[in-house]
Write a structure and sequence with these properties.
2 copies of one chain form a homodimer.
Chain A: H1 6-12, H2 14-18, E1 40-45, E2 48-61, H3 72-81, E3 88-99, E4 104-107, H4 122-128, E5 138-140, H5 146-149, E6 165-169, H6 170-176, H7 179-184, H8 187-200, E7 207-210, E8 215-217, E9 220-224, E10 233-239, E11 242-246, H9 254-257, H10 271-287, E12 291-293, E13 302-308, E14 311-316
Parallel strand pairs in A: 4-5, 5-6, 6-7, 11-12
Antiparallel strand pairs in A: 1-2, 2-3, 3-4, 8-9, 9-10, 10-11, 12-13, 13-14
């Protein structure tokens, strides 16, 4: 039933012989790309055009200390259930540019390639999306963990977005810039204080501190969502009749903390408060069937939140061919 | 707490006035892209480099006839549960290029832009991936529905992949090329027969008919999976110790037919046989925790199959920054 075509015969005999290729083998016809394609996804919220930019992933080895209030066997099972390795949590990073028509607003800035070798692609993906860093008008920071602020600066302390107004949560600034608080912090936290000073030190006078709840750009409101850090904020992007909830770090990986919202990650500074903020925003997203964006959700990191069992499910958006 | 920076003051007064812009407004700083970014995703299976290419989506209005053996209320609920509209099924298309190192093998060819306005981007995504259609060595077709074969030709009957050996399932060829069968087919099926003749007519003598189960290229085996059409095939791509199961149309949209494998879509020509083939392959994927690719799964259309309740769940792969 399998016909041999003229082309196959030629390739297998005359042509191949002419090229010095043994019958049955073939020259490589196209080089492998050898690297991932750009991670860029666009969608609309009302009249606004949003661009999700993938910054990469941190494959974090975890043990029984990672979730404070769950048995490690349960954490491993949750990872195994979604075909992830049981001892390594792949934490992805996705930043978001909102084009309001009059402003280019960037929500968080990625790792700046200063955290781990497998992250730092936000800059090249910004370029792939055709956006010049000089064109960013406004930056809104959710909180001061390094994977959210390091992209503001190169590792040589150069400003990456020279024309952007940088907005940060006032209580976050007050906490991390307080020398007294830093002096009493344990070493694993103290490095965050030092990093905040490195990133903001030379631009401190130009940084705009916003009150959580305040609108920071047209149609972009901030929402207090404390617990993960003392001043951690989420965002609502609204245009026309549509709105989208950017969850920031209200959860880390959804397959762990959307499904098990009561679990407290060791990186949630106040675990109980983080759970309270998490339930409040996930409840709102589920009840209102809002589109959401999650900083540590799998790229393109947008979708919806559905109630499921004791927790919730993250339902990724279907990649659309048009806006 | 919200500081006004020097930059904000300037933008709101002197600079803006100089540019003739009213205070409080701003010039558009970057044009919206206005269209989706390229849909290309790469991953490895052993030494092989695979490239998933998004061809777009068919937003198909559906009614109570779409699933033969389920109440339409249940179908609507299944769509509503995953935040899809209740009367329109967005059916995505994703083709796959396998670079074996010596051959570029294309599994199915997309709609060729000949089905619906929202599909036909496979060609531009192939270009974005840096792959010349002339470099495709081998094409393997799963079955003869137009969204799988139309990409072989332009609508003006030009061959799109001039150097490719075209492999088709022998029983599929025998069925659709039989004039007697065509003569007794109802009109809604007859158009498929006519389309098959349009696509294959002028190249018929060069088409290689494979026996389902046969290996058609190095490391690419075909698997009989009849029911959706009489000769429908799935594929296993194997390299080194890894393998991946390309499910072809063993299900249409996973949120309907992976979750409810017993549901028979009206587009499954033999519904009962399609369900039997579906259970067999989904069981294999779940039991072996195989990575899968689904032609009608949301882009990038790869992930895993988990057993869940009476059916299965599709767990999309996490977008990886590296191969």
């Amino acid at each position: 039933m399998a016909d041999i075509t003229r082309r196959t015969l030629l390739a297998g005999s005359a042509l191949a012989a002419a090229a010095g290729i043994p019958p049955g083998s073939a020259a490589a016809t196209a080089p492998a790309a050898g690297r991932q394609f750009a991670g860029v996804y666009r969608y609309k919220v009302g009249d606004y055009e949003l661009t999700a930019l993938y910054d990469g992933v941190w494959n974090l080895p975890i043990d029984e200390t990672f979730v404070r209030n769950a048995a490690f066997a349960d954490v491993r099972k949750a990872l195994n259930d979604v075909f992830l390795p049981p001892d390594t949590l792949p934490i992805p990073f996705t930043t978001l540019v909102v084009n309001t028509g009059s402003k280019l607003v960037l929500l968080d800035t990625g790792t700046g390639g200063q955290l781990i070798g497998t992250a730092g692609s936000m800059g090249s993906n910004l370029a792939a999306a055709g956006i010049d860093p000089k064109a960013i008008d406004v930056i809104v920071i959710s909180h001061f963990h390094p994977d959210h602020i390091n992209g503001l600066k190169t590792k040589d302390d150069e400003v990456v977005f020279p024309n952007a107004e940088v907005n940060v949560p006032a209580p976050e600034w007050d906490y991390w810039m307080d020398d007294g608080t830093m002096s009493t912090a344990p070493d694993r936290i103290k490095r965050y204080f030092l990093n905040v000073r490195r990133v903001f030190g030379s631009i401190a006078k130009d940084v705009r501190r916003y009150a959580p709840g305040q609108e920071v750009a047209p149609g972009i409101a901030t929402i207090p969502a404390f617990g993960h850090t003392p001043g951690h904020c989420a965002f609502v992007v609204a245009s026309g009749s549509q709105q989208m909830l950017a969850l920031s770090d209200i959860t880390n990986h959804p397959w762990l903390f959307v499904r098990h919202p009561e679990w407290q990650a060791v990186i949630d500074m106040d675990g109980a408060m983080a759970v309270k903020s998490r339930r409040k925003l996930l409840d709102r997203a589920a009840a209102d069937r809002m589109q959401v964006q999650g900083y540590h959700f799998p790229f393109p990191a947008c979708g919806h939140i559905a109630r499921a069992d004791a927790g919730y499910d993250f339902v990724p958006v279907m990649w659309q061919p048009t806006l």
